[in-house]
Design goal:
alpha/beta; Arc Repressor Mutant, subunit A; 6 domains; four-stranded parallel beta sheet; four-stranded mixed beta sheet; 28 helices; globular
């Protein structure tokens, strides 16, 4: 498995059209030429499995080349066939592990149109992957060859396959883990992946300290595999004997909760041995052995104070949050300084569900990057968001909403996202099915919304369409649902925080930007020229975008730079003539956020006003139909006092 630096080097190599020197790559990655030579040795071996090789020319440089019928094979490898080596090996693993097929070397040789020598090498490579941590074996007889091993070994082999598949996709360096997880859908099924992901996300959100953030992806893989094997009627036969303790009982109860939800949604049975197996993985993945530096507690206290000020919520009496952050932040700092990336499979969900908390935390923490000599990324910010969101829930400053939908898991999540667009940013949603209702503590929820008629004693249920029409939104309002306290204060009709920091000279109407880089460069130059920001602000904007896109499904982007480089607080509004691809979505409205260090406590108020606009289609439509600075300011609720149109 490649390290982050090796993946970055491979990405650079793939993007070069011609040979480049070792010095070129060393300069790009900020390392020595000796380090590049060392990393190239690993990449050279890695490329052999994908039908590619490194070509070196003395005095010219290095380039990646593909083997084909017209090129000379390297290291006695056969030329690349129409079926790539990587794809062929993955397909053979699928036949062995997922189809549980009996295969022969002759049939595989004919199917993939390669020699039996190549198939032999494939099996050597495959078993090297699958045998990592397991005792899985190949069993051959007159009928052919198949996988053989205990259920535990088979599930461990599945885990190694998942890791190989996800690691191989990391060649595309800008892919986020939520996209990579989708690669597993072809093997385990879309419904299973969606159910397991959302069930584990709910568990992590409610038991934030139960699994170390660094190991959440590993637990998700284990959970997916266990559910998949259970669905096929396979169960764990043995488990390790462990001492009974309070922790063990907690994780066994957690394993029951996770498996019960999955069984109700996907209709399968599980055994006590399956529960023990999952609980052991929950226990083994909750520890993080990272160095703790002496000054970390001081940093934690300062970060806690600054985020509290920015969110405008007093967390000073929440000892649980303080303890959680003191446990979480030191290893986080160590990971970031060591360039040891933690991929959070729930980042996309957290960004969507808790966008206000997420972006406020990131704005505030940005000002500490220079002091701490690191760069925060969206995966780490997402984990921190869970801690603060849990504290908000403990403070009873939000409402909990249960969504019941019988039209499938995908439809449930779609409905949840649509509802999230019309409720406060601090409120939390949970999705459940009809069979789960008997196993949920319904008293925890302030509101129940369902797409099917259900009767719950003592609870009023709002029946809505799966597409959530305007009439449905009206029903929710008429049923007495009131937004949480925080959002109640900051309605779009107010918007006074946003208006304070908008200047007519920094409203761009009907621009023709084609890329976010073009927009950032142009607006950034204007900001520097007018002395709103220092020159370093523009690179900090781009750096932030590289760590995770700031675009939203509604066609709005909210990029922000490091507060230490902002001399004055300003919100730049850009309305482009046409939508263009930002990161994941197409965007035509941009709120470029410059918040100075002295105004970071205003971050939550400003962002809240922006998200109030983003969350209301009428408000967005009003901006899109504004063709002058004057009309746009009026749409934002400002009194226009002259100046340029």
């Amino acid at each position: 498995m490649l390290t982050k630096r090796q993946k970055a080097l491979l990405e650079l190599l793939n993007h070069q059209e011609d040979f480049q020197t070792v010095a070129f790559f060393a300069n790009k990655l900020g390392v020595s030429k000796r380090t590049i030579h060392s990393e190239l040795g690993v990449i050279k071996e890695y490329l052999q499995s994908s039908g590619e090789y490194l070509e070196k020319k003395r005095g010219v440089g290095i380039a990646i080349r593909k083997q084909n019928k017209d090129s000379e094979p390297k290291h006695n490898e056969e030329p690349l066939n129409s079926y790539s080596t990587v794809a062929r090996r993955i397909e053979i693993i699928k036949m062995l592990l997922f189809d549980e097929a009996v295969v022969s070397f002759n049939s595989l040789s004919e199917r993939f149109m390669v020699s039996k020598t190549s198939i032999t090498k494939d099996f050597q490579f495959i078993m090297k992957i699958l045998n990592e941590g397991s005792n899985i074996q190949l069993k051959s007889d007159v009928h052919g060859t198949k996988i053989d091993g205990s259920e535990v070994d088979i599930q461990k082999a599945h885990l190694q396959f998942n890791r190989y598949l996800l690691s191989h996709s990391s060649i595309y360096f800008d892919e986020v883990i939520s996209k990579k997880i989708k690669l597993l859908e072809s093997y385990y099924g879309e419904q299973l992946i969606s159910a397991c992901t959302n069930i584990l996300y709910s568990y992590v959100r409610e038991n934030v300290n139960a699994i170390s953030d660094h190991y959440v992806q590993n637990v998700l893989n284990v959970f997916i595999i266990l559910v998949y094997r259970n669905l096929k009627g396979n169960h764990i036969e043995e488990s390790k004997k462990t001492e009974v303790s309070d922790n063990k009982l907690f994780f066994e109860e957690s394993a029951v909760q996770l498996m019960q939800k999955a069984a109700l949604r996907l209709n399968f049975t599980y055994t006590n041995k399956d529960i023990e197996y999952l609980s052991q993985h929950l226990i083994s993945n909750r520890f993080e052995s990272m160095p703790v530096e002496k000054f970390d507690n001081e940093i934690v206290n300062r970060l806690l104070l600054r985020v509290s000020e920015a969110l405008n919520i007093d967390f000073s009496n929440d000892k649980k949050l303080e303890a959680q952050l003191k446990s979480h932040i030191p290893p986080m700092i160590y990971r970031l300084r060591s360039n040891y990336k933690t991929e959070n499979p729930f980042t996309s969900q957290i960004k969507t569900e808790f966008s206000l908390t997420f972006n406020t935390i990131w704005v505030v923490l940005s000002e500490y990057e220079k002091e701490l000599k690191l760069s925060f990324d969206e995966d780490e910010i997402a984990f921190l968001t869970i801690y603060f969101q849990a504290a908000i829930e403990r403070a009873k400053m939000n409402k909990k909403i249960l969504i019941v939908c019988q039209m499938g898991i995908a439809a449930s999540e779609l409905l949840a996202n649509r509802i999230k667009n019309v409720i406060p940013s601090f409120d939390t949603l949970e999705v459940g099915s009809i069979p789960e209702l008997d196993h949920l503590d319904l008293d925890r929820f302030d509101l129940i919304i369902s797409t099917i008629k259900i009767d719950i004693p003592g609870k009023k249920v709002i029946i809505v369409s799966p597409l959530l029409t305007d009439d449905d939104i009206q029903k929710i309002s008429q049923a007495g649902y009131k937004p949480g306290k925080i959002k109640n204060v900051l309605t779009f009709s107010n918007g006074q925080h946003l208006r304070r920091f908008i200047q007519p000279e920094f409203i761009y109407i009907n621009t023709d930007f084609a890329t976010k880089e073009e927009l950032i460069d142009k607006v950034g130059k204007d900001l520097i020229d007018k002395q709103y920001v220092l020159p370093e602000f523009v690179p900090s904007l781009k750096k932030r975008e590289n760590l995770g896109g700031t675009d939203l499904p509604s066609g709005v982007a909210v990029p922000h730079g490091n507060p230490i480089y902002a001399q004055k607080t300003l919100i730049v509004v850009i309305k482009n003539r046409k939508k263009f691809k930002w990161d994941k979505y197409y965007v035509d409205i941009t709120f470029l956020i410059c918040i100075s260090k002295q105004d970071t406590r205003q971050a939550r108020n400003i962002l809240s006003d922006i998200y109030n606009i983003v969350d209301h289609s009428d408000s967005l439509q009003g901006l899109r139909e504004s063709f002058t600075i004057k009309s746009l300011l009026r749409t934002l609720g400002s009194d226009y006092d002259g100046g340029k149109e």
